[in-house]
Amino acid sequence: VLTRERNQEQLINDSVRMLLRLREEKTTDKSSNEFEVKLRQGGLMETEYLVSVLFLLESPKQHEFTDLYYDDATERLSKLRYPELLRILSFWRSLQLWTRLLGLQQGEKPELDSVYGPRLLDDLDLADMEELASVLKDHADTVKNWLEELIDAATLDKNRPDDWSETSIDWTGN
């Protein structure tokens, strides 16, 4: 099913509807919450969503994707579309693991002690907390820009993401 051709316009429109709905219900874009990893716009959830959409868009052309593990498919998608995608996804995942390890609430700024601080920064290949905040913002902005490209490609009324009328998948090439 993943490798079957489908109407690209419908897929993009459906993907954008879901993205807008996710943003409405799940994500935040509060600048005061600079250390939010998962639910910020351009964060982990939106990055993984982008990977899923790209997978659906590219699978009919790249049949071997369905035989790959998620990270391997993401690496190939990075080469096809966005060279930084895998690195950004890995960054978000690592940072989420660290926030859980340190027992932080989502968005809470890490207070780094002498044991975990250097390890976290080393794992993320960063010099200090200021660089961490900068990279968080840069990665979120990059993913948001990629998603804006997807939104711009849609041919639906973007002011009505709640238009969830049921339509069958338009398979092409039958």
Number of strands: 0
Strand portion? under 5%
Cα shape: globular
In N-to-C order, the SSE pattern is: HHHHHH
Structure description:
The chain is an all-alpha fold and 174 residues long. 54% of the residues lie in helices and 0% in strands. It contains 6 helices and no strands. The chain has helices at 8-25, 44-58, 70-80, 85-101, 116-123, 129-153. It is globular and about 60 Å long. It starts with 7 loop residues before the first helix and ends in a 21-residue tail after the last helix. The relative contact order is 0.19.
Topology:
Blueprint: H1 8-25, H2 44-58, H3 70-80, H4 85-101, H5 116-123, H6 129-153
Helix pairs in contact: 1-2, 2-4
Task: Throw out a few tags for this protein.
about 170 residues; mainly alpha; 6 helices
The gist of it:
The protein contains six helices and no strands.
